[in-house]
Please model this.
Amino acid sequence: MGTTFLMAFALMLVIEGLLPFLLPTLWRNTFRRITEFTDGQIRFFGLSSMLVGLLILFFIR
Model:
């Protein structure tokens, strides 16, 4: 289980690094806009992201 977790974490880092590496200006502008969101909007996106991840895990298993 530890190896699987580390592999998932490594894959997440690779995916998270793609946009800043390939399109740094777009990433910077997007990040700047995200910092202007309210706390409620940020929480909504975080919750949505977790739910989509759980659904993907559910369907994979």
In short: Residues 39-60 form the longest helix (22 residues). The chain has one domain: 2-60. The helical segments are 2-22, 24-34, 39-60. Residues 2-60 form one domain.
